[in-house]
Amino acid sequence: MPSGKTLKLILYEALQFAALIVPIFVIMERFGRLIRDIKGQDVTAYWLVVAASIAYVTSVTLLVWVPLKYLILKQRRFISEITQWRPTALAYILLCTLPCFAILIASSKVQVEVDRGITFDHFAELPVSLVLFSLVCVDIIERIRPFGLIGQLNDPDYDLDMPGPVLTHLEQVTTVTGQLHADEGQNGSTQSRPEARNGGAPGRWQDSPSRPTLSSRATSATYLYSSSSRPRAASGHLGFLWMRDRRSEVFVQSFLFWLDTVEMVRVAGEPSVFYSAWVFLVYILAFLSTLRMVITPNNPLLSIAEVALQDLPFFIVRVILIAVYGYVTPVLYPLKNALQSTLGNSTHTSPTRYTAPT
User: Fold this and answer.
1) Can you tell which superkingdom this protein's organism belongs to (predicted)?
2) Among residues 303, 316, 258, which one has the least CA distance to residue 140?
3) What pTM did the predictor assign?
């Protein structure tokens, strides 16, 4: 019987392969039906499109996807040394997302050129949602791959490549009092401290019991920051309420990461936008925003890429679409893009190192 690690590997690879081929088959089959309707119920055109989709999936699977997966699983040197970007994500975007968006643009173009005053299909819901859902699934699988599919994580402090500032190291800084005591011990000094006379205050080297020293302050600060980055221990009958599984946080973070792109692609499904020249720009910008998935979540370049590939161009296009077609997109999204572009900040920053204050 295969081990749990083998079963997890088979499940992850099967899900990623399904995310690669299913959107292409669905989009191409829908496109084949569109061509059949345009050509007057020509069944030959439909089956030609379906055969082309099967040939494409077979070619990219045998020539690109399987060799790439083999190199990654065998941990070849030139693959294992890649730490700042994800080859699997890049291959998926180029092999699946790009062709699907190209077919959607072609679907708009062929309907406009027919010039019959009849709109057949503007691919509003299922195909587009399936493409983006598969993209999110691939992103989630790449993040949780090193860990068990079910059960409690062995390392609760590991962030599963979650973006955001992470406290990775606590460094105790030597205080003045501690350094003086260390110097006395190294020099072999045996001189005693000045004693208090007539009940007076002790010498200047004597620490008052009621006043916290610098060392205790640093220790308290270290404990404060270290405890804030760890989940509280679960105890008692209601201890399960304190349990924190960061794999679920990866799911939420991934969907929030792609929410802006999902809304932009939804705008392209509006009939007024889909049958206009703006559909080209919308899908091109949506595809460029998907390139952010290639960068690892803990890479500091991700914040710059998010502004350059998504927020700034999305803001410009959304303002123009609202001015031309009305409120085809909620005002919330251009406001979010404007705020993000102005501040130039993002939650996707590199881990920071904390040093206890003196």
Assistant:
1) Eukaryota
2) 258
3) 0.70
Distance CA(282)–CA(338), nearest Å, equals 18
- Rounded distance between C-alpha atoms, residue 192 and residue 211, angstroms: 22
Q: Which conformational region is residue 326 in: left (phi greater than 0), alpha (psi within -120 to 50 degrees), or beta?
A: left
CB < 8 Å & 24+ apart, contacts of 109-112: 110/34, 110/35, 110/38, 111/34, 111/38, 111/275, 112/275
Six-digit token pair at 319?
A: 């303002």
pLDDT in tens, the chain (358 residues): 667 788 888 999 999 999 999 999 999 998 998 888 888 788 898 999 999 999 999 999 999 999 999 888 887 666 767 778 888 999 999 999 999 999 999 888 888 766 655 666 667 677 788 888 999 999 999 888 876 666 555 444 444 444 444 444 555 555 555 555 555 555 554 454 444 444 444 444 444 444 444 444 444 444 333 444 444 445 556 655 556 666 777 888 888 888 899 999 989 888 888 888 899 999 999 999 999 999 988 888 888 889 999 999 999 999 999 999 988 899 999 999 999 888 765 444 444 443 444 4
Positions of E strands within the chain: 167-171, 352-355
CA distances from 277 to 100, 107, 129, 131, 341 (A): 18, 12, 22, 22, 26
Dist CA 107 CA 27 (whole Å): 10
Q: For the chain, how are helix, strand and coil distributed in percent, rounded to 5?
A: 65, 5, 35
Nearest to 122 by CA among 139, 106, 99, 140: 106
| CB burial readout 90-113, b (16+ within 10 A) else e | ebbbebbbebbbebbbebbeebee
Do the Cβ atoms of 114 and 65 come closer than 8 Å? no
Phi, psi of 344 (to 5 degrees): 70, 20
Distance CA 154, CA 71 (A): 28
| Amino acid in the structure at residue 103 | I
- CA-to-CA distance for 20 and 14, rounded, in angstroms? 10
Q: Which residues contact 197 (CB under 8 A, 6 or more apart)?
A: none
